[in-house]
Structure formats: C-alpha cells, structure tokens
C-alpha cells in the first residue's frame, strides 16, 4: 500500500479529533459550508463538473488528485515488479530445497548404513573375542583346579565333579579333555591308578541320566591313529566332558593324534610363559566319535571348521614343569553369531590364521553359513578387521554385502524432495491468495482516502487544513522531545504498577527507550549450594525457598531505593544510581547487600523447619562493582528492563570469585566508600582476583555490623543508623558492643539439631493429622476401644527379625471415609497441642539416642527421613484414563494402597527416623566378631537394626507418650499393622546380610517378575510391602542418587567413620585400600539396580528417572575422580587427627597451677571456679532433675563410664529437686534441672526451683536444661550454665559439656 494512500485516512482522523478545538469564527462561519459543497466534492470524484456557485476550491483538490493518481501508478508498477521477483525466488527456492533435501536424506541413509555396519562389526568381533576368552578362562580355571590337587610326589589326580564343572561354564566348548603327562617309568602305575579310580565316569553318567555302553576302560594306554611323536611320554585321556558312554576313549594317548600332538608340543616349548595355545583347523572326528552327542557334533563339524585350545597343568603354581594338559574342542560356527535380530541383510565374516588356511561365513539373523576355506571373493565397500587370539595370529575381518547395503537404500530421498517441492508450491499459492486479498483491500482504502481527501478539501480552507496538520505534527514532535530518562521512568512505573499492561512498551515504533548512566553500582547475589540442595527437594520446595528469599530482598530494595533488575535462576541482580542518578549509589548498595546477607541467614534458619535438613547450609555470595552502564527497555514480547556494558561483566566476575556468606567488592566500589568516609567497612582481600580481559584485580571484603542498641534492623524492615567494621567470617567478641558473633561449631550443630527436630515433628504431625481425619470417617470410629495396655510381648528367644513377614495387609479404600476426610480437610482439622508436644518430645529423645558418629548420626537419619518424605509424595498412578468420581479409588488401586493410608506413611517415616538409633559406628559383622552383648542377644543377625527397633519401640511405650500412641493406632488391627510396618521397614535397611538380600530379591521377583497365582488383594499387598522396603532402602543411600556434592559429603563421612573404626582396631582392613573399587562395585551391583527397580515399580513418576540419572552421573564422576577423592579424604583425616582442635582455655595466670583433683566448688569464689579444667574431678555430688525416666537413665549410663565415682541422685519434679537439695547436711557440687516436668502448668518450673534453691543458700553449680532456648530466663533465675536437650549420648561429648559447665561456660562456649 502506498504511504500517501495510508496517510490520508490518518489525516482525516486527526482532523475529526481536532474539530472541537479549531475556531471557525462561530456559527456564522460554519453556515457558509452547505451540503451542496459536499455534493460538489463527491461529484468531482465521479468526473462531473463542480457547481460554480460558492467559493472556488477545486484547484487544490484536483491538483492533489492528479498527483495522487501519478503516485499510485508508479507504486503499483514497483509493487508488481517486486512480486514477480518474489515469485521467481520462491520457485527457485523450491527447486533448490528439493534438490538439497534429496542429497541430505541420501547422505543420512549412507551415514546410517556406515554407522550400523561398524557398530555391527564391533559387536560381532567382541562376541567372538569374548567367547574365546571364556573358553580360555574355562580351561585355565580347570587347569588351576587340577594343579591344586597335584603334589610333587604324585601327579596322578582326578578332579571331582569334572563334568558338572564343565556344564556350569555353558556351551563354550564342544568337548573338554584332561590328559596327565605319563612317563615310560610311570606307565604301569598309571594304568593301575586309572583302573581303580574310573568310578568318576559312573557318577557323571548318573548326574546326566545317561547309560554306559561299555563297563570298563582299556587296561593299558592305547593309540588313536598314529605313532606318538614323543617316544618316552604319553598323554592318556583321563577325564572328559561330556562324559563318555563308551569308556574305550579313556586311556587313549592324545600324543598319538598328530593334530593334538603338534599343539601340545608348542605348549611344552612355551611352558615358561604359561599361556594357552590354539591350533589351526584340525580334523578331530576321532575324538568326537566317542562323545554321547556324536551325531550333532559331527553334523556341525561337516559344515564348520574345528580348532583345538590347550592349557598346561603344572606341578605347582610357581613351577613351569608340565604334568598334564587340558584340551578344549570348539567349533567356529558357534563362535560366529548375528547380534541384532531386527537388522536386515547378511554380513561376511572371514577368519584368518598363520597356522592354516583362512575360512569364511555368511552371517544373518538365521545364523552363520560356512562358505569354505580361502579368502572371500565378493566385493565389499566397507570392512573392518580385529585381532582375536595371539596364538596362530587369529584375526577376523567383517565385510558388508550388497544385500546389507541395499536394506538401507529406498525411495525416501525422492519422496522427501517431492514433498518439499509441493510444500513450496503450496506456500506460493497461499502467498498469491493473500496478495489478491491485499490488493482488493488496498483498492478500497484508496477509494476511501480519495473521498476523504475530497471531503476535507471541500470542508476546510487551505489555512485551516494547514493549522490542523501543524497541530498534529506538534503533538508528534512533543512525544519525540520527551527525554529518554522520562520515558524509562514511565516504563518502570507502568510495569511496577501494572505489570500486565505493557503493550505501549512492547510496540516497536520509534526509537528504543535507552540511556547511558555514567555512575551506578551493580550487585550480583548467587545462592551457594543451591544446585545440590535442590536435588534433594520437591519442585514446590525449591520455589518456596526462591520466592521467600527474593521477596525479602525485594522488600529491602524498596526501602533502600535500590532497583531490582531481574532474577536469573538462583542469581539476584540489582542496581543503584538509576533511573534516578544519585551520588551515594555505592553506599546504598553496600547497605542493601549487607541487609540481604543478614536477612538470608535468618531466613534459612526459619525455612529449615519447613524445607528440611541442610537448608541452613545455603548462603548468598555477593559481588559489587561500580561503573558506567547502558540501561533501557528491551522491547518485544515480554519487554524487560536490561543493563548492558563492561560493568555487568566485571560484577559477574567479582561475584563468582567471592566466598559464601561474604560481600566481595571491586576497587571502584571501594573508592566510592572510602570517599564517603567508610574505610572501616573495608578489608583488603589478600589474594588477587583474575578476571577475563582485566587481568589481576584488587578487591575487598565488605563487612558491616550493626552495633548493639544502634537502631533497628533494616533487613527486617526498619531503620538503622550506626554501623561498625566486623569480619563476616570471624566475629570474635571485640567488645560488648558487637552483636553479630559466630558461635562455635558445636553450638551450630546444637542449633541445627533443634531445627531438625522441629522439621521432623512438623512432617510427622501432618501425617498424624491426616491419619486422624481419615479415621473419623470410619463407621467403627465411635466404637474404638482403649488399647493403652497393648504392647508387643515376644516369646523367649524371639527377636524383631522373627516378626518380619512377607506380606503386610493394607486397608481397603473407603469412599465414606474419604468423603468425611474431605469435609474435615475443609474445616482445617488440627491435632491437639498435647499430641504435638508428645511427638516433639519423642523425636527429641530419639535424636538424643543417636551416637556422635560421622555418618550414622541424627543428621543422616534426618536426611533419610527427608528422602522418604520426598519419595512418598512422588508416589503417583500411571498414565491412565480416570473418571473424576473414581480418581481417589483408582489412585488407591494403582499405587497399591500406600497413598490412601496415612498410618503406612507415618510408619515408614518413623522407620527412617529410628533406623540407626544407637548405631555403634561399626558394621554388624564387626559386632558379631567382637562377640558383643547385642550380637549375642540378636543371634548375630541385623544386630544394629534390631537394636534400633527395640529402643525406639520401648521409648514409644513409655507412659509420657500415651496420647501419641492413641493417635497412632486405635484398633488392634492398626496396632499390629503399625508394628509390622516398623519392623519390616527398619530391617530392610540391613543390605549387607546376604541371606536377607536373597530373600528380598526372591520377594521382588515374586511380586513383579514371576507369574504367581493369587487373588488381587494379596498381589496388591505383596507389591505394597516390596515398594515400602525399596523406599527405605533408596532413602538410606539417597545421597548416592543425588547431586555429586551431596554424594561426596556423605561418602566422606562414611569413609571417616570406617577409617575411625580401623584406627581404633575395630576393622581388619584399611578402608582406603578398597574404597575406590568398592564404591564402583556398590554402584554397579546395588545402587543402579535399586534405582532401576524404583522405575520398574511404576509408581514413582519422574523421581525414578531422577534417581537413576544421578546414580549414573555419580558413578561416572567417581570412576574419573574417585582415586583422587580417596587420597584427599585420607589426607584430610590425617591432618584432622594430628591437630588439636580444642580451643585454648581463657584462664588468668594466677590460677594456672590450681590442682583440679582437689578442687571443691562449694568453697571457692566465682572467679576461681572458672579455672579451665581438662579432666573431670574424681568425686562430685550431683543432683539430676528431669521428668523423663529415659533421660535420667541415659545420663546415669554415660556418667558411669566417664566418672564412675560420682554420687548421682535423681528427682522427677521441680518440687522434689528443691526438697532433696535443701535437706540438712546435704550439699551438691553440681545440679542439673529441667525447665518443664509435666504438662500441668501448676507444676514447679525449673527456673522457680533455681530461685528457691538460691534463696535457701545453695552454692553448688546449677545448670538449666531445656529443649527450647531458655538460657536467658535460667540466667536471670540464678543458674550458672545452660544445656540444650536432648543431652549428648556419646560419653566423650558429655564429658566435654560437663567440663564446660564446671569451667563456668555457657552454651555458646561449647567446643
């Protein structure tokens, strides 16, 4: 369409929109223009003469029409020329693409032909090589077995089960013979030995079910065909497979058979090398005639060459003296096979040798066809040659055939070219139709523009037309004069206020909205450890983390007036100094980054309760750089505000070379901060940073700490005014004003321990809530009885292992219960608080029962629990068509009932939590070897696992968990099912017991591989039981099927645990010697097959693929780098064990020589009592007040090991503790007191008891205890120290805590 033709309607629209603002001199002026004027204009368009009355304006109108006609003709001619060129280009393109497609498809066929041929030749050659290698291995193994029986005084031996051994190797060889080497002097003795020991033939015939045709072997050594080339030696056939029915073959001298004699002579000549030797093509009909399978073998021999393979038997394993021979007969037609059933066309296989003629086969899917001896005479365009065996220089050459090549050539190139040509013709026809429609529309628009122009010309004089055009042009110029910065502000404001209304920004008319900003500071912040962390999480959990963190950063950005540019994956990009330039952009960004860092550290602690273990290990890595940037709106679909320039690249380098939880800044940003008087915020980085294109850069660490009382926390949404320097890595108490301090490692672990307990409690409480909701909908809910007295009473001599059952019956689907559950879900049913409190107490106590092993610890149990929760949430139904009304029932059936039974889910999660309780850090085999009490109790089977079941179950049966038990099970059936699930699942984690492993494998095959005749309900329950066992097994080693960093973390901990056991004398072998090969074997024979089984279950969706992919990746990484990793782990442990990690005691010099053994805590002032002890006093009076019998028992057991002479008394309430402590003539050196004893609020709290003790003059050290952070209130009450519960179970760890308390340290001082 011509530009002028398009502009005329636009002019008319502008004119109509401006009419109300144009002054025509009032109504009188308007009355001069009549309808006749309009009619005149329209008439002129039709060629009639204008009306001569009225003002004359025909001149300008006719002039415009004439110029328009001329322009239209010129544009039409130009457009037609362009269309002709376009049609010609399309036609030539059609021809060109068709020809190109033909050659491309033909080339693909040729490449497929070559690729498949070479792959096929590789498989053929490898198959032959493997079969020859297996044959050699068979004979060498047999030779070694015979050598082990030979003595230097007597080489006449008989290998037991000779025929059965050869059968076990399969059909690698057609016949295997053993012939001892007999000298002339031993000939008579041999004949006597052979006659008296020929009963091996009868035993072998009996095993095969064959009948002998002769009853006795020849009494003397016989000759087969010719005279032996060895005059003084014989090699009588003694044992053979298949066992002969005709015993006359026995005692025939192999050396009398020329083909065999020459081969054995070569063996004698190369005896020192101890290698197998192969003959050329030999006629061994004389041997095969004695085989019970003679007919089959000779028929094949007529069609295929036969060779001999021989291995010597030595006097002993170190000698090169030959005392016999093991000879194998194999036929080449069994060696050559076609590896692919679906391939088309035969291939030619030629086998060459230096000991005789070559021979050839034609091989296809039906099998090999012997072509004869000599070289192949057909022409082959592709061939490949491979060595087979060094003896006789055997080699195989595989060649293509015409039929094989023809199978890859068809009419696809021609058909593809034709289709491409037709497609282009279709495009040309569509383009032609579109062009016709456009021409028709253009004609209508042109006619409308001509009429509109006539109307405008007739309505307005030239000066009015000019004014209208000038006003329209002025508006366009006004928009063009609008500054880029203002346009940018308008865009950013629009996208922030109305994110979905960005049509104006995405229009590509006019210049782009972009500008240059000479001064700005850019921040890149990246989540460290995010990739590994996300590999263990559900997608929803990943997005929960990102949304929470980035929304918090957005809130800080709004307050700090920092502009958020974008988030790319786990990287957050922000800038200060634009779109509104500011001189303190570096200062603003530094404070923003510091606020984000503080907020991030707070958030991960909060989120670990909901997102699970290791969340607190996440941290941000910040990078800041200042410089010029180009900023603008990148228009198009989903327009975005973007930054470009070298500053962005440098910022990325600064960020990527930084460290976790630190703010890394460039020299340019540091200069701005120094200029602003913030030199104390900076700490020079000692090492230089190398950036691409920049060389070495000088950088700094930014460390801003808020002073105590210096204002509110900006990171949490309020103002802050005072700042100070601090090292973000080592906030070492630089005075009372520093608030951000880094705790010792043990303090971090304790804090993390509490968060893990809360997370597990929340997960299990949610399952219990679902269990209670599902239970309310049952018909028998109101008739449920109290099962408080129900417990497991095992018969004498029986253990949890005896309770393992093959099938656990899960409940059937109930539509009524589901409907009631849905209604209660809508009502937000909540568990009672006392149930949740008991659950948290139970989990806390279990956590305290874990020993401080590097691997088998509470943190690993939490990791396993998280993996179980993930797998349980990923149990889905296969892709099936389900009606909406039946979806719940169908899911129940297709997932074997696991998804609809919360009790099953709770039992599996609990099993993950308790499966390593009280694990000693050594395998069951070591416990059995040491003859421990547990090994004796559990009869050396699954010792640690059974112990964990008993401990967890005994704890659950205690009186203070009554409400929890009532929530878990309501009926006897639920009780039995819960117990069975717990026992089966925990004991499934014993993967080292071969017997249990075989039973599990058999159950898997019975459930998923074998055709078992049983009813559907039993089949579903069988599969559910197997799936549950595989859930806990996969979760127990989930780190091997997660990100490489996660695998490395737990693998190094397991290695450290095993190495520790070795150094303590509790392991026979150094694990470093076999760790690399052991891990590869573990991947190949357990982890990867287990991941494949998860996929075969068909209920885990994409998680099974995810686990298998990670397992394969980790296996490849370990194979490449495992040896270096093992060396690094060994070195790390050696450095760790050779260094003293205990912090130096902060004691005054005046107390350096105090005798700790004679120290009486009641008689020394407070400052003396802080003397750093290194050993516990030999005798102390201790009062331990705690409401849990389990906690008291654990404390007593640990103290008995580290301080056996301490006098420990116990109290189960606060009032009882005060009563005992204030008795006359009673003084306690050390008092431990818990904050809560029972749920009754009227009970005396621990802090109340401390206050009363201090008021009565108790001067002994008092240590408060609680699972919550009650340190401050105990301190206010007068306690000296504080400990978090549960207490350490490891005696050494408890000893260090007791030393801390005796040294006057708080929880923050734990080492």
TrEMBL record:
Residues 231-342 form the CHASE domain. This is Phosphodiesterase. One of its GO terms (biological process) is receptor guanylyl cyclase signaling pathway. Residues 785-991 form the PDEase domain. It comes from the Eukaryota. It comes from Cylindrotheca closterium. One of its GO terms (molecular function) is nucleotide binding. GO terms for cellular component: plasma membrane. Its main location: membrane. Residues 521-655 form the Guanylate cyclase domain.
